[in-house]
Design goal:
This protein has 51 residues and is an all-alpha fold. It has two helices and no strands. Pfam families: SpoOE-like. This is Spo0E family sporulation regulatory protein-aspartic acid phosphatase.
Length: 51
């Protein structure tokens, strides 16, 4: 999981909001972004705990 992927998804989410996309589409993308962020935080935590 990379921060680059998270940032790309965040940028896409902002574009959808600006374009006034349907709420369901924004919500779905927002949930995906949340999952990616949580996964990234878990990976980061595991990395530091293993050291």
């Amino acid at each position: 999981m990379s921060l680059e992927k998270i940032n790309r998804l965040r940028a896409k989410l902002h574009e959808l909001v600006i374009e006034n996309a349907p709420y369901e589409k924004i919500l779905t993308l927002s949930q995906q972004l949340d999952e990616l962020i949580v996964d990234h935080q878990k990976e980061k935590k595991d990395y530091f705990e293993d050291r």
